[in-house]
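Sharing a chain and its predicted structure for anyone who wants a worked example. Both blocks are below, sequence first, C-alpha coordinates second.
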Amino acid sequence: MTLHTRYSVQTHVGHKRSINEDSVVALPEQKVWIVSDGMGGHAAGDYASHLITDMAAVIPPDLPPGERMQALRDTIHNAHHMIRAEAAARGVDVMGATVVALILADGHFATFWAGASRLYRLRDNEIEMITTDHSVVAALVEAGQMTWDEAEHHPQSNAIVRAGGVGDDLELDKVRGEIASGDRFLLCSDGLTKYATFEMLREALATKPIELICEHLIQIALAGGGADNITAAVIDVI
Protein backbone atom coordinates (compact mmCIF):
# COMPACT_ATOMS: atom_id res chain seq x y z
CA MET A 1 0.00 0.00 0.00
CA THR A 2 1.35 3.41 -0.99
CA LEU A 3 1.56 5.86 1.90
CA HIS A 4 0.12 9.27 1.07
CA THR A 5 0.66 12.33 3.25
CA ARG A 6 0.04 16.04 3.31
CA TYR A 7 1.94 18.37 5.57
CA SER A 8 2.47 21.95 6.67
CA VAL A 9 5.40 23.49 8.56
CA GLN A 10 5.98 26.93 10.02
CA THR A 11 8.39 28.60 12.42
CA HIS A 12 8.29 32.06 14.01
CA VAL A 13 10.83 33.98 16.05
CA GLY A 14 8.16 35.08 18.56
CA HIS A 15 7.76 38.44 20.25
CA LYS A 16 10.79 38.50 22.55
CA ARG A 17 13.75 36.82 20.79
CA SER A 18 15.99 38.46 18.19
CA ILE A 19 17.11 35.16 16.61
CA ASN A 20 15.08 32.07 15.81
CA GLU A 21 16.97 29.14 17.37
CA ASP A 22 14.32 26.66 16.20
CA SER A 23 14.81 24.69 13.00
CA VAL A 24 12.40 22.48 11.08
CA VAL A 25 12.82 20.25 8.04
CA ALA A 26 10.26 18.37 5.96
CA LEU A 27 11.52 15.50 3.81
CA PRO A 28 8.36 14.15 2.15
CA GLU A 29 10.26 11.78 -0.16
CA GLN A 30 11.88 10.14 2.87
CA LYS A 31 8.66 10.53 4.90
CA VAL A 32 10.71 12.25 7.61
CA TRP A 33 9.93 15.44 9.56
CA ILE A 34 12.13 16.98 12.25
CA VAL A 35 11.82 19.87 14.71
CA SER A 36 14.87 21.03 16.67
CA ASP A 37 15.02 23.74 19.35
CA GLY A 38 18.42 25.29 19.95
CA MET A 39 19.92 25.89 23.39
CA GLY A 40 22.75 28.19 24.36
CA GLY A 41 21.57 31.54 23.07
CA HIS A 42 21.86 33.27 19.71
CA ALA A 43 24.53 31.79 17.43
CA ALA A 44 25.12 28.72 19.61
CA GLY A 45 21.54 27.45 19.66
CA ASP A 46 20.96 28.45 16.06
CA TYR A 47 24.04 26.49 14.97
CA ALA A 48 23.05 23.38 16.93
CA SER A 49 19.45 23.14 15.73
CA HIS A 50 20.28 23.84 12.09
CA LEU A 51 23.15 21.35 12.11
CA ILE A 52 20.70 18.57 13.06
CA THR A 53 18.15 19.44 10.38
CA ASP A 54 20.75 20.20 7.69
CA MET A 55 22.45 16.85 8.23
CA ALA A 56 19.12 15.02 8.14
CA ALA A 57 18.20 16.74 4.87
CA VAL A 58 20.86 14.78 2.97
CA ILE A 59 19.65 11.31 4.01
CA PRO A 60 19.19 9.46 0.67
CA PRO A 61 15.49 9.22 -0.25
CA ASP A 62 15.73 5.72 -1.74
CA LEU A 63 16.83 3.84 1.40
CA PRO A 64 14.64 0.94 2.55
CA PRO A 65 12.60 1.79 5.69
CA GLY A 66 14.90 0.01 8.15
CA GLU A 67 18.02 1.62 6.71
CA ARG A 68 16.31 5.01 6.59
CA MET A 69 15.44 4.74 10.28
CA GLN A 70 19.01 3.78 11.16
CA ALA A 71 20.37 6.62 9.00
CA LEU A 72 18.16 9.08 10.86
CA ARG A 73 19.31 7.83 14.24
CA ASP A 74 22.97 7.89 13.14
CA THR A 75 22.58 11.41 11.78
CA ILE A 76 21.30 12.74 15.09
CA HIS A 77 24.12 11.03 16.99
CA ASN A 78 26.72 12.39 14.56
CA ALA A 79 25.28 15.88 14.93
CA HIS A 80 25.51 15.50 18.71
CA HIS A 81 29.27 14.91 18.53
CA MET A 82 29.78 17.74 16.03
CA ILE A 83 27.90 20.16 18.28
CA ARG A 84 30.10 19.16 21.21
CA ALA A 85 33.22 19.70 19.13
CA GLU A 86 32.00 23.11 17.96
CA ALA A 87 31.18 24.14 21.54
CA ALA A 88 34.71 23.20 22.62
CA ALA A 89 36.21 25.12 19.69
CA ARG A 90 34.19 28.24 20.57
CA GLY A 91 34.74 27.89 24.31
CA VAL A 92 30.96 27.86 24.82
CA ASP A 93 29.61 26.25 28.00
CA VAL A 94 26.15 25.42 26.67
CA MET A 95 25.44 24.54 23.05
CA GLY A 96 22.78 22.04 22.20
CA ALA A 97 19.40 21.39 20.68
CA THR A 98 16.36 19.34 21.51
CA VAL A 99 15.14 17.18 18.65
CA VAL A 100 12.01 15.27 17.74
CA ALA A 101 11.87 13.30 14.50
CA LEU A 102 8.98 11.45 12.86
CA ILE A 103 9.41 8.79 10.19
CA LEU A 104 6.54 7.00 8.42
CA ALA A 105 6.83 3.69 6.55
CA ASP A 106 4.96 0.45 5.92
CA GLY A 107 1.88 1.34 7.95
CA HIS A 108 3.91 2.39 10.99
CA PHE A 109 5.44 5.49 12.52
CA ALA A 110 8.60 5.80 14.57
CA THR A 111 9.79 8.79 16.53
CA PHE A 112 13.18 9.58 18.05
CA TRP A 113 13.59 12.41 20.48
CA ALA A 114 15.71 14.10 23.12
CA GLY A 115 14.53 17.08 25.15
CA ALA A 116 11.15 18.80 25.30
CA SER A 117 10.16 19.15 21.66
CA ARG A 118 7.10 16.94 21.29
CA LEU A 119 5.13 14.65 19.01
CA TYR A 120 1.34 14.44 19.30
CA ARG A 121 -1.16 12.38 17.34
CA LEU A 122 -4.81 13.21 16.74
CA ARG A 123 -6.96 10.15 16.01
CA ASP A 124 -10.76 10.11 16.06
CA ASN A 125 -10.72 13.65 17.49
CA GLU A 126 -8.69 12.52 20.51
CA ILE A 127 -5.17 13.83 21.12
CA GLU A 128 -2.29 11.77 22.47
CA MET A 129 1.17 12.96 23.46
CA ILE A 130 3.49 10.31 22.02
CA THR A 131 6.77 11.61 23.43
CA THR A 132 7.71 12.29 27.05
CA ASP A 133 9.79 15.35 27.91
CA HIS A 134 13.33 14.87 29.15
CA SER A 135 12.99 17.59 31.75
CA VAL A 136 13.05 18.17 35.48
CA VAL A 137 9.28 18.51 35.70
CA ALA A 138 8.58 15.35 33.66
CA ALA A 139 9.26 13.22 36.72
CA LEU A 140 6.57 15.16 38.62
CA VAL A 141 4.07 14.55 35.82
CA GLU A 142 4.89 10.85 35.64
CA ALA A 143 4.45 10.61 39.41
CA GLY A 144 0.95 12.03 39.05
CA GLN A 145 1.75 15.23 40.95
CA MET A 146 0.72 17.49 38.07
CA THR A 147 -0.49 17.42 34.48
CA TRP A 148 1.61 18.35 31.45
CA ASP A 149 -0.43 21.54 31.15
CA GLU A 150 0.36 22.43 34.76
CA ALA A 151 4.04 21.58 34.25
CA GLU A 152 4.34 24.39 31.69
CA HIS A 153 3.92 26.89 34.57
CA HIS A 154 6.38 25.24 36.95
CA PRO A 155 9.49 27.37 37.82
CA GLN A 156 11.72 24.66 36.34
CA SER A 157 9.66 24.08 33.21
CA ASN A 158 12.61 25.04 30.99
CA ALA A 159 15.13 22.75 32.71
CA ILE A 160 16.02 20.16 30.06
CA VAL A 161 18.06 17.12 31.09
CA ARG A 162 18.76 15.64 27.64
CA ALA A 163 19.55 17.24 24.27
CA GLY A 164 21.79 16.94 21.24
CA GLY A 165 25.23 18.33 22.09
CA VAL A 166 24.72 17.97 25.85
CA GLY A 167 26.67 15.29 27.74
CA ASP A 168 29.18 12.76 26.48
CA ASP A 169 26.68 10.47 24.79
CA LEU A 170 23.19 11.19 23.53
CA GLU A 171 20.43 8.80 24.55
CA LEU A 172 17.54 8.97 22.11
CA ASP A 173 14.17 7.61 23.16
CA LYS A 174 12.09 5.81 20.54
CA VAL A 175 8.41 4.97 20.16
CA ARG A 176 6.96 2.93 17.30
CA GLY A 177 3.33 2.34 16.44
CA GLU A 178 0.77 1.76 13.74
CA ILE A 179 -0.70 4.51 11.60
CA ALA A 180 -4.17 4.75 10.11
CA SER A 181 -5.79 6.86 7.45
CA GLY A 182 -6.98 10.07 9.08
CA ASP A 183 -4.16 10.26 11.63
CA ARG A 184 -2.76 13.76 12.12
CA PHE A 185 0.67 14.21 13.69
CA LEU A 186 2.05 17.39 15.27
CA LEU A 187 5.74 17.99 15.96
CA CYS A 188 6.47 21.19 17.85
CA SER A 189 8.94 23.09 19.97
CA ASP A 190 8.07 24.11 23.51
CA GLY A 191 7.48 27.66 22.30
CA LEU A 192 4.04 26.37 21.29
CA THR A 193 3.25 24.11 24.24
CA LYS A 194 4.06 26.87 26.75
CA TYR A 195 0.84 28.51 25.61
CA ALA A 196 -1.32 25.79 24.06
CA THR A 197 -3.04 23.35 26.42
CA PHE A 198 -3.94 19.82 25.37
CA GLU A 199 -7.51 20.93 24.70
CA MET A 200 -6.39 23.92 22.62
CA LEU A 201 -4.16 21.65 20.55
CA ARG A 202 -6.89 19.04 20.20
CA GLU A 203 -9.46 21.56 19.02
CA ALA A 204 -7.06 23.15 16.54
CA LEU A 205 -5.90 19.84 15.10
CA ALA A 206 -9.47 18.54 14.89
CA THR A 207 -10.95 21.56 13.11
CA LYS A 208 -8.34 23.36 11.01
CA PRO A 209 -7.42 22.34 7.44
CA ILE A 210 -3.81 21.44 6.71
CA GLU A 211 -3.30 24.71 4.78
CA LEU A 212 -4.15 26.82 7.85
CA ILE A 213 -3.23 24.69 10.85
CA CYS A 214 0.37 25.77 11.44
CA GLU A 215 -0.44 29.46 11.10
CA HIS A 216 -3.30 28.96 13.58
CA LEU A 217 -1.00 27.22 16.09
CA ILE A 218 1.62 29.95 15.76
CA GLN A 219 -1.03 32.59 16.43
CA ILE A 220 -2.12 30.77 19.60
CA ALA A 221 1.43 31.02 20.95
CA LEU A 222 1.86 34.64 19.86
CA ALA A 223 -1.44 35.62 21.47
CA GLY A 224 -0.37 33.88 24.67
CA GLY A 225 2.84 35.89 24.92
CA GLY A 226 5.22 34.47 22.31
CA ALA A 227 8.24 34.73 24.61
CA ASP A 228 10.05 31.89 22.82
CA ASN A 229 10.59 30.77 19.25
CA ILE A 230 7.62 28.78 17.94
CA THR A 231 7.69 25.89 15.49
CA ALA A 232 5.03 23.45 14.29
CA ALA A 233 4.94 20.70 11.69
CA VAL A 234 1.65 18.93 10.98
CA ILE A 235 1.44 15.75 8.91
CA ASP A 236 -1.78 14.15 7.72
CA VAL A 237 -1.96 10.47 6.76
CA ILE A 238 -4.49 10.15 3.92
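Comments welcome. Helices lie at 42-56, 65-90, 138-142, 148-151, 190-193, 198-207, 210-224.
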